[in-house]
Amino acid sequence: VVAKILLFDIDGTLLLSGRAGYRALTRAFEELFGVKQGFDGVPVAGMTDELILTDALRRAGVVADRVDRERFHRRYCDLFGEEIHFPGPRKGLMPGVLTLLDRLSRVDEVKCGLVTGNFAHPARIKLEHFDLWRFFHFGAYGDDAPVRDELVSIAVARAERKGVTVQGAHHVVVIGDTPLDVQCALAAGARSVAVATGTYDEVALRGTKADAVVSDFGETDTVVELLLDI
């Protein structure tokens, strides 16, 4: 199958989990390292979970080896499965997301995947909670590489292993809500569409090298046309 690959970020792009991730991270950090509110002030927008953890450990003065990190990873995943069920601020899908993904799923030459800083297990829990997991066939996650710039090539390789033929990076589009999403597309030679539903507004996103910027996914026809033509 020859396809255009659309790689979606999750948080701030497709949905908001109502800070379920923050609560689970905070609980796991206190349980394992004895530090309360360990993620306060830690930048998270566009970052991988691995880098977020590294920053929190550094700020708290905690030395953690690989085994400690693996224990944290497991505990965080367990706690996230609990926290996703609780209400939180702005929890829900971004405007037009469900309609957009449904439309794209009916276009034969398009395959949708993920490029997210989330660890893989919480990413799946999150998307299943909002009934979006069914739209995605492959992806790359925060536990695949600590730096987001490496994730696009990993996601494309996984698409190819599933029988998808990708005719060059210009047939890959990264869709995200932060300058780091745009940057990871540039690093891979891919296209990018920035959406102003997260931390950054349209003005800030137009200051990046995104190929296009949209306010949200509410105008389905316009967004589908953009993604197919870019």
Q: What's the Cα radius of gyration? A: 17 Å
Under CATH, the topology of the largest domain is which?
Rossmann fold
Profile the largest sheet.
6 strands, parallel
What gap, in angstroms, lies between the N and C termini?
Answer: 20 Å
Overall mean pLDDT: 96
Q: What is the strand content?
A: 5-15%
Order of helices and strands: EEHHHEHEHEHEHEHEH
CATH architecture of the largest domain: 3-Layer(aba) Sandwich
The backbone outline, from C-alpha atoms, is: globular
Give the uncertain stretches in residue-range form. none
Question: What would CATH call the homologous superfamily of the largest domain?
Answer: HAD superfamily/HAD-like
Number of helices: 9
The helix-and-strand class reads: alpha/beta
For this structure, what is the CATH class of the largest domain?
A: Alpha Beta
**Biggest sheet strand line-up:** 5-4-1-6-7-8
Oligomeric state as shown: single chain
What is the strand tally? 8
State the domain count. Answer: 2
Helix content: 40-55%
GO molecular function: phosphoglycolate phosphatase activity
InterPro entries: HAD-like_hydrolase_sf, HAD-like_sf, HAD_2, HAD_sf, PGP-like_dom2
Organism: marine metagenome
Protein name: Haloacid dehalogenase-like hydrolase
